[in-house]
Design a protein that fits this description.
Radius of gyration: 15 Å
Shape: elongated
Number of strands: 0
Structural class: mainly alpha
Largest sheet: none
Order of helices and strands: HHHHH
Helix content: over 70%
Length: 106
């Protein structure tokens, strides 16, 4: 088994946790040495930050409600795709949010 494949296998479970809300901190804190888990954990962190921000913005009447509804549709879809891709052992860069995640240094 190649070194990268071994790293992906060891990081899969942590990568999945990265897309489950606040659990994104688990791979970021416990698997800093695993590039695969860290990659997905960073994306999960950005996704979680945007989920919280959308929740706060959704408190604003009308425009905030629309943003909140869109967030309720888009963010779970991104999470599910991230979970599926991480279970498949793939690096998957989320649209827009993936670029922000790459800028995070831990």
């Amino acid at each position: 088994m190649a070194e990268e494949e071994k790293e992906i296998e060891e990081g899969k479970a942590f990568a999945v946790l990265g897309y489950l809300s606040i659990l994104c901190l688990v791979p970021l804190l416990l698997k800093k040495d695993n590039k695969f888990a860290l990659f997905h954990g960073k994306q999960g962190l950005i996704l979680f930050i945007f989920e919280v921000a959308a929740g706060i913005i959704s408190l604003v009447p009308f425009l905030g409600w629309i943003i909140g509804i869109l967030a309720l549709i888009i963010f779970p879809i991104l999470s599910v795709i991230g979970i599926i891709r991480s279970l498949m052992g793939q690096y998957w860069k989320m649209p827009v949010l993936g670029d922000l995640a790459e800028k995070i240094t831990i």
